[in-house]
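REVIEWER CHECKLIST
Item 1: Sequence provided? yes
Item 2: Single chain? yes
Item 3: Sequence as submitted:
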Amino acid sequence: MDLGIRGKNAIVCAASKGLGKGCAMSLAREGVNITMNARTKDTLEAAAKEIRDATGVRVTTVAGDITTDAVRAALLQACPAPDILVNNAGGPPPGDFREWDREVWLRALDANMLTPIFLIKASVDGMIARRFGRIVNITSVSVKSPIESLGLSNGARAGLTGFIAGLSRKTVAHNVTINNILPGPFDTDRLRSNIAAQAKASGKPVEQVARERQAQNPAGRFGTAAEFGEVCAFVCSAQAGYITGQNFVLDGGAYPGTL
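Item 4: Structure as written out by the authors:
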């Protein structure tokens, strides 16, 4: 299927690896020019070269902390008229809420709620004027099924989800859609580090813990960044103009709910 977005311009955050990189690669394969952001310059440049070599599209990089005004401004200067925006950020650390002071909460809100909102604010009116826009927020399956130890993520991402639920109904009449993709266990650096920590705490080999985690999932495996990216690309497609305000759970069937 031709997704009808060749020649469009996309901003993809946290795109040097993992799910963000998967989204950037899938969009690039559809002919979308990519402006990528991540904190680590070397890793970001390596990912950009890989995408350029694989697809031939224009790929621009802006390294730095997207939660800062300066880096957001630089990103929007590099891509002043994005047709597609993929918001993404690493989740805050797990822990006990009794240990989190105001500054810890503000960092979580900045990364996983406020920064996406600020980027939407900066780009959505241009999308409306051009009568095309696709905004995708990568959140977490914890929005639908909270994870007790991830209270910072549960709270910040749920706040973003509530905000999007209202805004997305205002923009869709202008062919600007806003949706969320909620990943479960995907084979990323973050998942591998969590498994390594679990293995160390339990005294089990890493490979055994990984197998046990995979066996707990109805799919019997972890998801891949490539398949996540393909879903993102479709949600950004010309054909997806009637889909807005939705939360797409990608978790191999782990979420047990009917709705």
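Item 5: Key structural point noted by reviewer: The mean pLDDT is 96.
Item 6: Recommendation: ____
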